[in-house]
Amino acid sequence: MPKHRDVPSLKNLSLKSIGSMVVFMAPPIISNIQVYNEPQKIISSLQKSLDWLNKLLASHVPYYLYDTMAVEVLNSVKALIERTKKTYYPHTSMSAFLTEMNVVVSLTEVVLNAQLKHIDFSEWPKIMRYVLFKNLNKMTGLETLNLGSCASGWWTSEYDKCLFDGVAGMKYLKSLCLCFDSNDVIVQVVGENCLNIQSLDLTSSRSVTDRCIPFLLKCRNLRELYLHRTSVSIVGHAQLIASLPKLEDIGRCDEFGSIINNLHHNYYPSHGTFRLRKIQTRDLSTENLRLFVEMFPKVEYISLFHDMQISDLTVLTSLNNLRELKLLSCAFYGDYLKQLLEIRGSNLISLHLEHVEEMDFKVLIDISQYCPKLKSLVFYNCDFINTVTLPCEKIKVPFLNLERIFWVVDSAINHLEFILSHALNIQYIHLGSSTGITHSAVVNILNVNPMRHLKEFRVLYSSDMNMRTVELLLASCTNLSVLSELESWQGISIEELKIFKNHIYSNNFDLDIRPTLSFTT
To answer: Which residues, at least 6 apart from 490, have a Cβ–Cβ distance to it below 8 Å?
Structure first.
């Protein structure tokens, strides 16, 4: 049976109560401002109440709990906004409704001050994001700021001013994400004021050009710089890679082959090797790969979209630090992936194979033997050939350290059974909609491997898995906390699912069966 939910701690109950307290203050604030007719007095009264609440929270909540408290308050305000929206009817006084909405939305401000360290705008609805954006200048203590695409394409000069004024005061900022809407002036403000910045995500911001490079070069602590789909040139990328002393990750970069050539021509070998540890690219030639392994010997992660220009993946065997490998569109034998794993697989902890051909049962044997430390394994739309199962008596225990498997492969149930039957320490199983997994397959697997460490079991579709399957999983996998997509198991009726949900609730089991309908790899 699954574990029971823990009794909430006094600390957590207290933090949740702060959110309730803030929401409870909305009616008194509305009553106070209703006595005024002049707009200026209404605004002044509202702001005075918000400032009082802000100071109260800042002075009574310990600094190490402030971020957690802020999330609880914002969640409570978010719920209050939704409830207030539903109170509007055609006969409702529009002025009274707008006054109430203005107050409840303004409650977002009560946690915004210098004590806040981390905030992600994308977690909150647009109506709250606008308030957050207006008050950026109050959050001078921020270390992590995720704006996402804050203006959702509707960028105005007002947003520019709020962002400039806010970021200029964030001396402790270490991570900033502003996709789509960033520009050279914003990067200039960051470069001149946020000298501790370590991660900067400007993805898809076409207004970011080579003119911002001098300001990026001032950010000497940058470790992550994401410029995918910006207007920064190949020459600009090369200059940043060569000049930023701590840069380790540039995110996805489809022009990396041309950047390698530029670095080789202008900076190597006089500059020495480069520090990048993570590469995501495509369309590299074999010659590009040879230069790459020579110039970037510290690389630990590679995501490579293979094409016809690459004929031999064994070039990558020179990377002694390689720990995570993601390959898209290649052949296991024809492109010498087997030889690469044989030589370098002993260091790998993560292997992701997508649209890989020439896959058979022997491939699984090879992976299990060449990659004994493997913790994460992904097969996505790979073509498995149905061959006779090979004897496994003489091989070492396969997949002993595997903790996570993501399997989206058509009708290769025998291959899946082999992996899961031997993965004694598996914790996360994510299966696609056409894997062919059945009740009998689960029985076969559990008879060999009870999967005592399993925490998540997500199966997007099964033709016959039923409540008996659920009972077997719960009885065997005692650490199971997520059992998802039961709605797509054809052996479970709507009524059975409803009864099961009530059973979980009434017994206080710590088991999440909410559907996600999406996978994260």
So the answer is: 461, 462, 463, 464, 465
Question: What mean pLDDT comes out for the span 101-128?
Answer: 96
Cα–Cα dist 442/458, whole Å: 13
pLDDT at position 517: 67
Q: What is the secondary structure of 191-239 as a DSSP string?
A: HHH-TT--EEE-TT-TB--GGGHHHHTT-TT--EEE-TTSS--HHHHHH
- For 267-308, the three-class secondary structure string (H helix, E strand, C coil) is CCCCCCCCCCCEEEEECCCHHHHHHHHHHCCCCCEEEEECCC
CA atoms within 13 A on the CB side of 147: 33
Mean pLDDT of 461-485: 95
pLDDT the model gives residue 498: 96
Which tokens belong to 127? 């109506």
Residues listed for the chain:
521
Give the Cβ contact number of residue 260 at 10 Å: 27
The pLDDT of residue 521 is 46
**Pair of tokens at residue 513:** 């069966």
Q: What is the 3-state secondary structure (H, E, C) of 93-158?
A: CHHHHHHHHHHHHHHHHHHCCCCCCEEEHHHCCHHHHHHHHHCHHHCCCCCEEEEECCCCCCCCHH
DSSP β-bridge partners for residue 406 = 378, 430
**Closest to 436 (Cα-Cα) out of 418, 458, 456, 459:** 459
| Cis omega (within 30 of 0) for bond into 27 | no
**How many degrees, rounded to 5, is the angle at CA 241 between CA 239 and CA 245?**
110
CA–CA gap between residue 484 and residue 493 (Å, rounded): 15
With a cut of 60, say whether residue 389 has pLDDT above it: no
pTM beyond cutoff 0.85: yes
Q: Name which of 261, 250, 244 is nearest 295 in CA terms.
A: 261
CA–CA separation, 337 vs 513, rounded Å?
38
> CB 368: neighbour CB atoms within 10 A?
24
Query: How many Cβ atoms are within 10 Å of 33's Cβ, its own excluded?
Result: 18
Q: Under 8 Å CB-to-CB from 204, ≥6 apart: which residues? A: 179, 180, 228, 229, 230
Please enumerate in sequence order all residues whose Cβ is within 8 A of that of 200, keeping only pairs 6 or more positions apart, or say none: 175, 176, 177, 187, 190, 216, 219, 222, 224, 225, 226
Helices H / strands E in the chain, number of each = 18, 17
User: Which region holds residue 361: left if phi is over 0, alpha if psi is between -120 and 50, else beta?
Assistant: alpha
